[in-house]
């Protein structure tokens, strides 16, 4: 077993931002990442995915994301390059591929059990994201459908569905972007299904405004002022250029949620049906926290109760990224910097004490 002050679990953007601030605090740490290469979830998204903010609003602490030539909104490959460069530039001690299986209490320390060597640490920062835990809602008849079913995480490109009838389920950003991707491709018969009519944000709102809204909401709540509703009050779908183009061309009409899947498609409550060769579930994610199960901290919706990023039931554990519940916009590139700094401060205070 190897000993260190801090183990960061996950080497995506959140883990790297934590590393940046832990280094500034002069702490001894490692970052353990399950991927073979740098870039976290950005290595696995669909081919046409672009950020919903310009490069200048998509940066981690210390280093601006360079502009991608010819692209106002950089693509995922550009983010992977940026993260790869980031960890090299700051010589962050990332070990990969290493999968953390479990974190255990071990006297005054935490034992981090992995598929390689185990680590003993005084503090752990979990930054494992959500991509690895796709959420699929209960759906009657799911097992009877003989076509292909996949989640957002399995979608790559429209040509994989050439000539097919495809149902996209979900009214969030992933659903809208994948529906737009498919709709723009000739020969695909698309049905986009949402629980409520899609709520597009105003065309001039991108990730910058979302970050501001999330920050303003956090500030209001911290100061005891009424909840502004944050990002959710503005809408659900950022009208990124391909979504806007498909919507304006009338290609993004939706139908209400169906009642059940049948052998060869879907059926609505009124008995009407649609044939489908594939159903793509764009129905979100849950925090990827199974490695923390031995600590017995799980709360509602698979989350762990936190005071900012520190776990309420285990002061040696911090959670970074995942969603607004660990800091405003902490699951975004620009938003994770601040909670990462707070985390490093909190860990340093703990180790000093
Ligand atoms: C479709 C989509 C579009 C998005 N668009 C934007 C955008 O435009 N702008 C923006 O700022 N944000 C965007 N986001 C949100 C967010 O920036 C990304 O989800 C980002 O990948 C989150 O980074 P992360 O470091 O928290 O998690 P990840 O990128 O998932 O990194 C976590 C890392 O931890 C590793 N890991 C997981 N479990 C273990 C384990 N047990 N042991 C060891 N390692 C482990 C994973 O392999 C991974 O490398 C988008 C998200 C999605 C899903």
Tags for this entry?
single chain, 353 residues, alpha/beta, five-stranded parallel beta sheet, 6 helices, globular, binds flavin-adenine dinucleotide
Share in β-strands: 15-25%
Low-confidence stretches: none
Radius of gyration: 21 Å
Q: Percent helix among the residues?
A: 10-25%
The sequence of SSEs as H and E is: EHEHEEEEEEHEHHEEEEEEEEH
| Biggest sheet features | 7 strands, mixed
Number of β-strand runs:
17
The overall pLDDT average reads 93
Contiguous helical run count: 6
* Class from secondary-structure proportions: alpha/beta
Shape: globular
The end-to-end span amounts to 24 Å
Which cofactors or ions or other ligands sit in this model?
flavin-adenine dinucleotide
Give a short summary of the structure.
This protein has 353 residues and is an alpha/beta fold. 22% of the residues lie in helices and 21% in strands.
